[in-house]
Amino acid sequence: MSSVTLTAVVTGAGGTIGKCFALSLASMGYDLVIIDTHRGNLDALQTTLHREYPDTQVLALDVNITDPQEVMSAAQRVQARFQGIDLLVNNAGISPKLPTGKRIPFLNIEDDEWDLVMETNLKSVFLMCKYFFEGLKAKQGKIVNIASMMGATGSGVDTNKLFPYSVSAAHYSASKAGVINLTKSLAREFGALGMPVYAIAPGAVVGGMGKFDESFIQNLKEQIPSHQLGNPEEIVNALTFLLTSGMSLTGQTLHVNHGWFMGG
After folding, report:
1. C-alpha pair distances (Å), 104 with each of 85, 166, 171, 225
2. For residue 1, what pLDDT band results from cuts at 50, 70 and 90?
3. How is residue 226 annotated by DSSP?
4. Going by DSSP bridges, is the β-strand pair 30-36/6-11 parallel, antiparallel, or unpaired?
């Protein structure tokens, strides 16, 4: 009797959290489609997966997920190879900073950079969900969108006397608010098909998008009840939890931030 094969698609797989997602899913028996535009990171991850999980099928795709034609072509390749998708993790994202690593003030955000952030962080989720829908539908797959705490709070400020003290700028926060809202909309539309849609909203994560110096970290920890930053493994744990949740939590955003933000 043949075992059921599970297939997961992970965007932004070459980054710190994306790599953790891919390795964890491989350990759970998923075959993987790993997507990134950084070919070197993608190749390194593929090599690691082949070494640690030799039985896992891995399809590595260098795809610009803001381009409809590239996403459509990728979806066709994945469907031809795997005949269905059990899980789509929309993890890719960017959070531009000043050269010093600090937050870009709103009035200093260039028009083109605003568009790039919206395309990378939000339009890509729309395109991936749209063009991978048939593959997901074939297996009643799940969608997990990686949002951000800043999508709920708004962008940060430069003093820890005000909440939230953060280097995230307005364009990043607005794009992640869109991800949270899109998650709710998709959950309603796909609910009758038995396809849950969730979001995970990390706070400050070690090795994530922020390049924090020691003074910033100490000030940041003063705002966090646990006085700790998150780690990528905690984001993976949230994904693992959602994979067991079925339709009960569809449309929900799971905040993972050590109590920095306690949204109701």
Report:
1. 38, 11, 9, 26
2. very low
3. T
4. parallel
